[in-house]
Amino acid sequence: MIDNTRHISTRQGLTALSPLFLMVTLFVVLSLYFHDFYKVPLLILFLAASAFALCLLKGKKLEDRLTVFSRCAADTNLLLMVWIFILAGAFVSSAKAMGAVDATVNMTLTLIPGNMILVGLFVAACIVSLSIGTSVGTVVALVPVAVGLVEHIAISLPLIVAAVVGGAFFGDNLSFISDTTVVATQTQGCKMSDKFKTNIFIALPAAIMAIVFYIWMGAGSNQQLEIGEVNLWKVLPYAFVLVTAVLGMNVLIVLTLGIVLTGVVGIGSGDYDIAGWFGHISSGIVGMSELIIISMLAGGLLGVIRELGGIAWILNVLTRRVASKRGAEYSIVGLVCVTNLCTANNTIAILTVGDLVRNIAHRFGIDPRRAASLLDTFSCCVQGCIPYGVQLLMAGGLASISPVEIILYLYYPFFLFFAGLLAIRLKRA
């Protein structure tokens, strides 16, 4: 076992980590003041924490402090992640504009038998979210469909909405163009295809358990669905990205070719011209700008904390009584879960603790694919269990019900949590 930590007192360690405490405190206090966890811009919180962290670098000139921050903000792995964000934003925006989301939704709904609406919606949400890489986008696309079905069938509204939200988290956890997948793999230094192959053995059993429950809950329903036009031509960009990514092609090449394909399909079908295609690519990139800036601020902030000794201290605290890989994996789970509870954003949670987790994985010989899988899996679990997460707030708003009502029927994140713990328990320590 490699010991890459140094002795740091508790006082020094807490001082080094105080920028993170400040960020969490500001988030909670301001959210309670505004009565809304999403009225507080995360960008402002990271700016405040970063400025405070620079103040803690005593004995250095301002230029030297900024050099430490900037060097870490411009880390090679971080900049590669930024490129992926740029291309993913361009692909999603241009694909959505030419009707790929609607076509994918309609195609998946054609697979739903009338007596298996709950299961069908769950599977549809799984496929759509896996294709488009966003749980929020899946919720926006499918929850209105679910709400419309309740007018014709005798199924609880929270139950049918929960089926959609659960499936949305399946794709958020596994998709190659999901923010969480990008961040988890880049912070741990592994390929997306390798992480997918590791992750699927946790996510798939959880999805199967959810399907069994939804079959039981939806028994007796026999409603035929009204489905819009199915245009397989418009599904092609998503199918291409999914298949080529699974086959292990470099993600930058996959997304670049996917963007080109959206242009070919979109222009060919008359959904936009070349200028319109460029415009949608540009708006997609702009839409990722906040996440890109937050990523770089997070990299710089954690670099300063490392310089202050905070990383070494927290590693010592987390691993003090850990004597095996299994114990180290549990510490990774605890770290990402607590951070996600505080930030209410699974992507930001992974960004915040990614460097710490990489150190823990290296120290205890945990495969980077395994570390990335645990990060993504358990962040999605927590995100699906908090009523102030954007996915549940969005679903509740679209269905005009409380997010808490949805959680009561939201089986998949809970099954995923237990499947993840079981995977750790059964793995040889």
Q: Could you walk me through the main structural features you see in this protein, from its secondary elements to its overall organization?
A:
77% of the residues lie in helices and 0% in strands. Residues 1-5 have low confidence and may be disordered. Helix 1 packs antiparallel against helix 14, helix 8 packs antiparallel against helix 19 and helix 9 runs antiparallel to helix 18 (368-383). It is built from 21 helices and no strands. The protein is mainly α and 429 residues long.
Strand content: under 5%
- State the order of secondary-structure elements, H for helix, E for strand: HHHHHHHHHHHHHHHHHHHHH
Low-confidence stretches: 1-5
Helix-strand category: mainly alpha
- Helix count, DSSP H or I runs of 4 or more residues: 21
| Gyration radius, rounded | 22 Å
Helix content: over 70%
Termini separation: 13 Å
Overall pLDDT score: 84
Largest sheet: none
| Coarse shape | globular
- Number of DSSP E strands: 0
Key phrases:
mainly alpha; disordered N terminus; 429 residues
Layout of helices and strands:
Blueprint: H1 10-34, H2 42-56, H3 62-73, H4 76-97, H5 100-109, H6 117-132, H7 135-150, H8 157-174, H9 179-188, H10 192-217, H11 232-246, H12 251-268, H13 274-287, H14 289-308, H15 310-319, H16 325-343, H17 346-364, H18 368-383, H19 390-399, H20 403-407, H21 411-426
Helix pairs in contact: 1-2, 1-14, 1-15, 2-14, 3-14, 4-9, 4-12, 4-13, 4-14, 5-6, 5-11, 6-7, 6-8, 6-10, 7-8, 7-19, 8-10, 8-18, 8-19, 9-17, 9-18, 10-18, 10-21, 11-12, 14-17, 16-17, 16-18, 17-18, 18-21
Kindly summarize this structure in a few lines.
By secondary structure, the protein is an all-alpha fold. The protein has helices spanning 10-34, 42-56, 62-73, 76-97, 100-109, 117-132, 135-150, 157-174, 179-188, 192-217, 232-246, 251-268, 274-287, 289-308, 310-319, 325-343, 346-364, 368-383, 390-399, 403-407, 411-426.
